[in-house]
Write a structure and sequence with these properties.
The protein is of the alpha/beta class and about 250 residues long. The chain is built from nine helices and seven strands; from the N terminus they run βαβαβαβαβααβαααβ. It has helices spanning about 20-30, 45-55, 70-85, 110-135, 150, 155-175, 195-200, 200-210, 220-230, and strands at about 10-15, 35-40, 60-65, 90-95, 140-145, 180-190, 240-245. It has a seven-stranded parallel β-sheet with strand order 3-2-1-4-5-6-7, sandwiched between helices.
Length: about 250
């Protein structure tokens, strides 16, 4: 459950990568705050599960299957969401993948896949969402980056580069859209207890906990609560900011 009270009634949100992990937690939190949530993911069965779970709890949600690196499909999804609910007020670009390897061993397809989903996908959804945002003269864009895009992480040159790109995109787009009352911010999570981080194995995760001042992994709700704040009216004078949610890892 969200630990902050935010009223997002009568607002429409798109959350990419909503099938599981952070994306699912974010979609659920936005719906619990009153938003109508378009759950977007390439995994058809799991994204429908997310939307169904929200509906069963009394929220409003619908699933859209989409490869975020597909420009035509991204534009189609945004248009369909606007047609479905009459507008769009919030975009959360969360979809992300990893294909870890040392640079010297990294294959072209490992680089291309991560850049394609993490950075290109964020760009495509931002561009498509700008149309309804500009028409309404308001909007909230929240991009999920990573501390790996700030400090780097061995074996993740593709992932770190993609997330550093998301941070650069966020700060530039914030300047481009500020005059139209559209805020653009990023959240940079540290290591969060999700399906993605579980692949690192118990020994690596234990070492990460030791390096984190708060001594634990984050929970998906920690990131979801940060999204709620940035999506709310309380954050109306914040734009171009990168909010670290990392337990002190980058201190």
């Amino acid at each position: 459950m969200p630990r902050i009270k935010v009223d997002l009634s009568n607002r429409v949100a798109i959350v990419t990568g909503a099938a599981q992990g952070l994306g699912r937690a974010i979609a659920v939190a936005l719906a619990q705050a009153g938003a109508r949530v378009a759950c977007v993911d390439v995994n058809e069965s799991l994204v429908h599960e997310t939307a169904a779970a929200i509906s069963q709890e009394g929220g409003t949600a619908k699933a859209w299957v989409c490869n975020v690196a597909d420009s035509e499909r991204v534009s189609q999804v945004v248009n369909e969401v606007v047609d479905e609910w009459g507008g769009l007020q919030i975009l959360v670009n969360n979809a992300g993948i990893t294909r870890d390897n040392l640079l010297i061993r990294m294959k072209d397809d490992q680089w291309d896949a991560v850049i394609g989903v993490n950075l290109r996908g964020t760009f495509l959804f931002c561009r498509a969402a700008c149309r309804p945002f500009l028409k309404a003269n308001s909007g909230r864009i929240i991009n999920i980056a990573s501390v790996s895009g700030m400090i780097g992480n061995p074996g993740q040159v593709n992932y770190s580069a993609s997330k550093a790109g998301v941070i650069g995109l966020t700060r530039t787009l914030a300047r481009e859209l500020a005059s139209r009352n559209i805020t653009v911010n990023a959240i940079a999570p540290g290591f969060i207890a999700t399906e993605m981080s579980a692949k690192l194995g118990p020994d690596v995760l234990e070492e990460i906990k030791k390096r984190t001042p708060l001594g634990r992994l984050g929970e998906p709700q920690d990131v979801a609560d940060a999204v709620l704040f940035l999506a709310s009216d309380a954050a109306s004078f914040i734009t171009g900011h990168v909010l670290t949610v990392d337990g002190g890892l980058t201190v």
